[in-house]
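PROTEIN ENTRY
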Amino acid sequence: MSESHQKETQKRDDNSKVASELNNLIQIISGTSSLIENIWEGRPGSEKYFEMLRASIERAEQVTAQLVAQAGGADRKRVLRPDLEQRFDEALIAGAPNQRKHSILLVDDEPMALELLHGVLTEAGYEVSVAQSGFECLDLFRRDAHAYDLILTDLSMPLMDGEETFQRLRQMSPTANVVLMAGFVDSARLEKMMHNGLSGFVGKPFAPVEILAVVTSVISAAERSKEGGNGIAAAI
């Protein structure tokens, strides 16, 4: 490998790490600002300042998206198996079903991101368990592989990332449903995971309505598959 090629590869790797961290931070900032906005709703002058904050967050998202593209990241914010795309559109219109019989295992090493998404899912009516590492996720899943209708896992985690967690879950149960969340994921890497049974990917930061539509589409497809007596491939 030439020196110039090595430098270019290193630059892309550095950009991917920066993009991932920026996306995670933007998601946390956006979620936190929404919480504060709800608390301060109706206060004199609050709308003016929150409008400025929203504009700043949108600009940060645009800059980060450009960085992701330059680093060779996925060119779409959402990637689903073909059979789930129509279900996503339907779920986006109908909204998440208010049913507590569906259980989700949420995996993320970032406490604030975990808390924000936990709130979104529980408010939508899902029973949510949390894990702060791939190891903890596997331990919970090993205890009862049938306890969770869906696993939502972050990609960038120390020691065991989301891809390895997905692979190990596939070994434990070929019918586990998993959705991958990431601030950045290389396009080739994502394509490989999709080929190996990944049902979907959602890029951070994402709107609550978007992640809920993904969750609804994957779970409803799994339910329909069970009714038909067929298994469903794992989704990360």
In short: Residues 3-70 form one domain.
